[in-house]
Amino acid sequence: MDPRCTMELCRFLFVAVFLLLPGASSLKIKAYFNETADLPCPFTNSQNLSMSELVVFWQNQEASVLYELYLGKEKPDNVNRKYMGRTSFDRENWTLRLHNVQIKDQGSYQCFIHHKKPKGMILIYQMNSDLSVLANFSQPEIIEISNITENLYRNLTCSSIQGYPEPKKMSFWLKTENSTTVDDGVMHKSQDNVTELYNVSISLSVSLSAVTSNMTIICVLQTEPMKTELFSSPFYIDPKDPQLQPPDYTVWIATAIAPLAIGLLLITYLIRQKRKKKRQPGVSNECEILKMERGESEQTQKRVNIHVPKRSDEEFQCVVNSLEITSGDKSATHF
Known about the structure:
GO terms for molecular function: receptor ligand activity. Strands 1-9-8-3-4-5 form a 6-stranded mixed sheet. Strand 16 (215-222) and strand 17 (229-231) form a beta hairpin. It folds into 3 domains: 3-134, Immunoglobulin-like; 141-244, Immunoglobulin-like (Sandwich); 249-334. It is 27% helix and 34% strand. The radius of gyration is 50 Å and the shape is elongated. The protein has 335 residues and is α+β, with helices and mostly antiparallel strands.
C-alpha cells in the first residue's frame, strides 16, 4: 500500500471534525439497546465510480473511526478498538450497521466518501447521523410490600426495570365504581453504572377505612421520548375481604386468660393437698396415744377381773377420722 495515501487519510480524519459540506443534512437514527443501528450514507454514485477508486469511512463525534473501506478493501488499521468486530458494511445500500448497540454509543456520526485520484483524495459525499439509543422498560409490577399495618393501611409498591432514557412520570390510578383518582407519588430511580439503564419505582399506602366499594389499582409508567404508557396488571381491593374487617380481640383475650385460669386452679389444688398432708400426721399420733392408753387400761383391768373392753367415744371418733382421711387420699390419687 502506498504510504502517502495513508498519510493523506490520517490528515483528513483530523480536519473532518471541523469541516462540513455546505448544506449537509443530519439524519435522526434510533436503535434499541443490544440490537443493531443502521448508519446510512446514501451516495447516488452518479459518475458510476468503482469501489476501487473510493475511500469510504465512518467516524463518531470524537473522530474515532468505526469502519474504513480503502479502495474496495476493508482496512482495520485506523478503526478504534471499541468498534472492532461490531460493524458490517452493506455495499448495495451504502449503510454501515453497528451491532450490539450500547447506551454509550448514542451521539453524532459522519460518513465520508472520497474519490482517490493521482493528485490526492477529493471529498465527494458526506452525511451526518444523530443516533439515539432506547431500551424498553419492563411491564410495571405491583407488589404488596407488607400486610395490613396497625393503622389499617395497605402498602403497595410498583416497579419497572432496565429502561432508557429516564421515564417522564410514574403514577397509580385508583378506580372505583364512581371515580378515578391519580396518585402522583415520588418516583425513585437508580442507574446501572455499566449499562446505564434505569430502574424506577413508586410507593402507595391505601387507607382501608376509605375503601367502601371495590377498588382497582393500576400502575402507569410514561416513557420518553416515545411518549408511550406502560400499564401494570390490576391490583384489586375488596372491602368485604376479611383482612379489611376490624380485628376481633375476643379470641386474643380468651387465649391469654385461659392459661392463667388453668394455672390458678392448679395452684389452688396443690395448696389444698399440701394442707391435707399436714393435718394427717396429727390425727395418726392422736390415735396411737389413745391405743396406748387403752392397752394400759386393759392390762389394769385384767388384774382385777376379766371383761370385754368397750371402745370409748374418743377412740371411736379417731377411727372414723382415720377412715375419712384414707378415703380422701384415694379420691385425690384417682383424680
